[in-house]
Each structure stands twice: as structure tokens, then as C-alpha cells.
Write a structure and sequence with these properties.
By secondary structure, the chain is α/β, with parallel strands linked by helices. It has 2 domains: 57 residues; 260 residues, TIM Barrel, CATH 3.20.20.370. 42% of the residues lie in helices and 14% in strands. It contains 9 helices and 14 strands. The strands form 5 sheets. Strands 2, 5, 6, 9, 10 and 14 form a 6-stranded parallel β-sheet that branches. A two-stranded antiparallel sheet has the order 1-13. The protein has a two-stranded parallel ribbon with strand order 3-4. Helix 6 links the parallel strand 9 and strand 10. The longest helix is centred in the N-terminal third of the chain and has 54 residues.
Length: 329
């Protein structure tokens, strides 16, 4: 009897064990099936996603145009920076023949630059090495004006309303952009507070309109930067005079420009370290009035040949000589 009970107990244990193994195997099978199905679903979802992504890839022409623009920007190594003074009929100018460009010649100079695929960029675009506004096949250049003369920015009255004189620099630039929309009228004015006779005068020489002009420039695509207050030769005055010139300018002019930039009066670079340190303390960059040791065009900011405190400019006179000689050759 005991043996019989023992056999029955063993049989029950074996049956229970077989049932347990079967259930675990079944559970594992379902787990594996579920994993497989999930992987299969994920696999086909990935294929579908890849098809969607492939369908969104731009066509070859679009990719080519992007590459062309990138290549165009990479090919541009140097940028010409034009330096103007007075824009006026020479007979009416107090700045002399060398520094005066007639309105008709200024228009001619803009046209020849445009015909040779040059379009203006701002100084901030240049210093940020941002040429995104330059389309493929075009080349950048920069327009600058020194001394804040009346021919650069002049108001006239028409029917008791103030209007920008169409024969001043800003008037000509605005009209040129209207005629050629891809030629954006971007320019920089390096201003001081002295006239051609060496006397104190507000910039652009219409003192009663100076607040209005300053407000216009701050809101416009044009930039204003420092040409010192009294336009002294930096190498011929004391360090304290240089310092006072800069401090007074900063007191008279408040801007929200990204950078602090100086154009040396007369292109006169500091003659000693003390004066150079003053410039470096108050300014991020400084522009000369002539070529530097690397030539008349400036290298781009990432180049080892870019000189931060002696960025070259090309003096423009009442002819096409320097444009043809230093830019279009």
C-alpha cells in the first residue's frame, strides 16, 4: 500500500512538472512571437519613414544651387572697401578736387560696379564673415563715407515737406536700389564734428536737422561709426588728446551697433604703443585710408592676413581710375 501511494505521488509530481514546463514554453513562445512582431512592425515603419525622408530630399538642381553658393562664398578671398568723402559738384565743394566726387560720377561708379557683378554688403556682415546676402555669381564690396559732409546726407524742402536730396549720396543710393533691387543700398558713415574749415559743426552740416538725420540713420540700413570728434592726426597729437577725442565722440553719439569701429582721420595710424592701446581699449576694429602691407583689398576676417586695426580702403576720386586699377583689373 505504501509503495502504491509512493508511485501515485511520484506520478502527480511528474505530471505537475510536465504541465509547468509546457506552460513556460508556451509563455516564452508568445514572448518571442511578440518581440518578433514588434521588430517586424518597427522594421517596416523604418522603411516607410525612409521612403518619406527620401521623398523630401530636394532635387539635384536645388542641391547644386546650394553648393554653388557655398563655393561662391569660399572663392571670395578679398573684399574691396571704397572710401568716399564729399558727393557734390566740384565747383561747389569746399573739400577740394581730390576728395569730391560729383553726383553724376558717383552714379557712374555704382553702375560700373553693378555691371561687374558687385553688390554692397554692410560692415557688420563683413566683420561677421556673413556673405549670405551675396547670390551666386555676385561679389561683395563695401561703401564707406568719411567726414559726414553735406553732400552725403542732405535734406531739401518740397511743398513744406522735408525730403532727402536726390543728388546726395543717400538719395542716389536709394534710387539705385529702386532701379536695381538686388543692389541693396548699404553704406557706412564715419562721422566727426568738424567741417572743412576746421570749425566745430554737427555732422552733415545742416545743424537744425541733425537730430532728425541721426534718428533716420539709426533706423535705416545705413550705419554710423567713429571718425573721432575733431579729426586730428593721431600721430601728431598727444595720447590724452586722442583719448579725449574718442570720449567726446562717445558722449555725443550713442548707437546700438554690434561693434565699436574707428576710421583713422587722414588714415593716420597711431605712432606708439600707448596710443595703439587707447584704440584697442575703445574699438574692436579700425579702418585705414590706404592699402596695408597685403594690398588695397581687405582679406576676410578668418584669414591670417586680416589686420584688425589697419583694415585697408580704396580712396575714390572723381573718376573711374582707382575702381579700374584696384577692383576691376
Amino acid at each position: 500500500m505504501k509503495k502504491k501511494l509512493l508511485y501515485i505521488s511520484l506520478l502527480i509530481i511528474i505530471l505537475y512538472f510536465i504541465t509547468y514546463i509546457h506552460s513556460e514554453t508556451k509563455r516564452e513562445y508568445y514572448n518571442l512571437s511578440s518581440i518578433f512582431l514588434n521588430q517586424r512592425t518597427s522594421y517596416f515603419q523604418n522603411i516607410k519613414l525612409r521612403k518619406i525622408q527620401i521623398s523630401n530630399i530636394p532635387d539635384n538642381n536645388f542641391i547644386k544651387s546650394i553648393n554653388l553658393k557655398d563655393n561662391n562664398q569660399n572663392q571670395i578671398k578679398r573684399i574691396p572697401i571704397l572710401m568716399y568723402h564729399e558727393i557734390k559738384i566740384p565747383e561747389e565743394s569746399s573739400y577740394g578736387e581730390r576728395y569730391t566726387v560729383s553726383p553724376s560720377m558717383f552714379k557712374k561708379q555704382l553702375k560700373i560696379m553693378y555691371k561687374n557683378n558687385y553688390i554692397p554688403i554692410s560692415i557688420e556682415e563683413f566683420l561677421n564673415d556673413n556673405l549670405n546676402s551675396v547670390p551666386s555669381g555676385k561679389k561683395p564690396f563695401i561703401i564707406t563715407f568719411d567726414n559726414a559732409t553735406s553732400g552725403q546726407f542732405h535734406f531739401i524742402k518740397q511743398n513744406n515737406n522735408l525730403k532727402i536730396d536726390p543728388n546726395c549720396a543717400i538719395g542716389i543710393l536709394n534710387k539705385f536700389e529702386n532701379k536695381y533691387p538686388d543692389f541693396k543700398a548699404k553704406a557706412t558713415f564715419f562721422i566727426d564734428f568738424i567741417n572743412s574749415k576746421g570749425l566745430f559743426q554737427l555732422p552733415f552740416q545742416q545743424d537744425q536737422y541733425w537730430p532728425k538725420k541721426l534718428s533716420f540713420l539709426k533706423k535705416s540700413k545705413y550705419n554710423i561709426y567713429c571718425h573721432t570728434c575733431f579729426h586730428n592726426f593721431i600721430s601728431k597729437v598727444k595720447r590724452k588728446t586722442v583719448l579725449n577725442n574718442i570720449r567726446l565722440y562717445n558722449y555725443l553719439i550713442k548707437t546700438n551697433n554690434q561693434y565699436k569701429i574707428l576710421a583713422y582721420p587722414y588714415g593716420d595710424i597711431p605712432d606708439n604703443d600707448k596710443k595703439i592701446n587707447v584704440i584697442k581699449k575703445y574699438f574692436d576694429f579700425a579702418f585705414g585710408a590706404f592699402s596695408n602691407k597685403y594690398g588695397h583689398k581687405s582679406y576676410r576676417i578668418h584669414s591670417k592676413k586680416f589686420i584688425k586695426y589697419n583694415i585697408p580702403r580704396i580712396e575714390i576720386n572723381n573718376n573711374l581710375k582707382n575702381i579700374k586699377k584696384y577692383i576691376l583689373k
